[in-house]
Every structure is written in C-alpha cells, then in structure tokens.
Specification:
With 136 residues, the chain is an alpha+beta fold. The chain has four helices and four strands.
C-alpha cells in the first residue's frame, strides 16, 4: 500500500535538534561530537520517506536493501549503525525512546564520526525517524 507523504512542519529544526541531542549524549559518554554528512542525511531521509510512503517499519527496505546497501548507494564509505523510530512527535521524544530502549548504544559508539538524520510523516500523521551513523 502506497501512502501519501505529508510534509513535516519544522523538519529541519527537528533534525538539527536530534543531532544536537546525540552530541550532548556523546559528550557525557566521552565521545567526540558527530558531524552531519550529506550522504548519510540522504540515506536516512530516503529510508524515512520509503517507510512512510509504503507503510512499513524495518531496517531492511521492502526491496531487500539493508542499511549498509542504502549508505553505500549514497557513496558513504563505512556505515556503522542505524536507528529507526516511528510515532514520536519531536526530537526530544525520539531521543528519549532511543536512549531508553535496548540496542541503541550506537549513539554512544565513539567509533562513529558522522551522522545523518531523516524525518518523514505518513498520511496518518505518524512521524518516521532514521539515524544513520558512519565511521569514515
């Protein structure tokens, strides 16, 4: 089922705030801040758009592509992690969800050096978030 994408009001500010919150968390863990890389941003945004448009929620795309496939397709050399979330209305809420769930210690992985964040909204109003990390 193909759902219409709905523009996300304030998406740029929300995405920038996620990056800031990630870097605040990383500082408390003794890690260097991440820089936004346009290739990772594009990979993350395309995945959020695809999940929102096609009504699924998974790391692997419906056509079988993995996060590493999508990151490599944008010519980023070494993807290191991906986090996804759905339904959180803003940056603070999605970060709290990632930090409060198991398996998202990727945020504090000091080996990552770059980040890309994507945010989309499906026709039902659910926001779909993707964080792609890289270690170049």
């Amino acid at each position: 089922m193909l759902l219409a994408l709905v523009p996300v009001p304030g998406a740029d500010a929300q995405v920038a705030q996620v990056v800031d919150l990630v870097n605040t968390e990383r500082a408390t863990a003794g890690c260097q801040p991440l820089t936004a890389d346009p290739r990772l941003v594009l990979a993350a945004q395309k995945h959020s758009d695809d999940m929102a448009a096609h009504g699924y929620f998974a790391h692997d795309s419906q056509d079988g592509r993995t996060p590493w496939d999508r990151i490599a397709a944008e010519r980023y050399p070494t993807g290191s992690a991906e986090n996804i979330a759905k339904g959180q209305p803003d940056a603070q809420t999605v970060m709290a969800a990632w930090l409060g769930s198991g398996g998202h210690d990727t945020i504090d992985d000091c080996g990552s050096t770059a980040i890309g964040v994507g945010l989309a909204q499906d026709a039902s109003g659910a926001r779909v978030w993707t964080q792609d990390f890289g270690a170049a």
